[in-house]
Write a structure and sequence with these properties.
mainly beta, five-stranded antiparallel sheet, 14 strands, 189 residues
């Protein structure tokens, strides 16, 4: 484990290009905006919030989107939009450039985005593995009700349920690393 980030932003309505409106960008440190202003941040984005192309090597990221959408594109030609419960597992291995942008699709009202991203350091033997991108779609991810909570099982096993197969060369793929579990738990109201 290296790092865990939680992003929770209440973006404004976007324009036809899925960008933050110009008047909303005034007073921001564009390209390096990590300060919450009006309930949201641009991060490294200049017009669309998010993280334009940047490199990763020697670790993997597991991105769990609770609400909202992400547009992904990488140097292995993988691209797509995911969100609202979906999980992306990206093993950077020998190196990969990717972008994670947060399109403001809704032009009539706000665009909420909440996600967790877990960075896992790859073991020495896997540092130069072939980069790999895998989607775990929300409707296929096992959900378990336990003690008044719903558990979303992303890796490993829990109470007799097995997660979807992880990305090859990942920590969770190697049976010697069991129990390697990643899950999200939410209490019921």
């Amino acid at each position: 484990f290296l790092f865990c980030a939680h992003h929770n932003d209440q973006y404004p309505a976007g324009n036809i290009q899925m960008e933050a409106p110009e008047q909303q960008l005034k007073g921001r440190n564009i390209g390096n905006d990590f300060t919450v202003k009006d309930g949201w941040r641009m991060y490294h984005g200049t017009k669309v919030p998010g993280f334009p192309a940047h490199p990763h090597r020697g670790f993997e990221t597991v991105t769990i989107v609770l609400e909202g959408l992400i547009d992904h594109a990488d140097s292995n030609m993988a691209a797509g939009r995911y969100g609202n419960g979906d999980v992306q597992w990206m093993t950077a291995g020998s190196g990969l450039q990717h972008a994670e942008m947060f399109p403001l699709l809704n032009q009539e009202s706000s665009n909420k985005l909440e996600l967790f991203q877990v960075w896992l350091n790859l073991p020495k033997a896997k540092k130069f593995a072939t980069p790999y991108f895998k989607m775990l779609w929300s409707e296929e991810i096992p959900k378990i009700t336990d003690g008044g909570a719903e558990i979303t099982l992303i890796a490993g096993n829990y109470k007799g349920k097995q997660a979807l197969p992880p990305a090859p060369d990942s920590w969770a793929f190697d049976p010697e690393n069991q129990p390697c579990r990643i899950f999200l738990s939410r209490k019921f109201n």
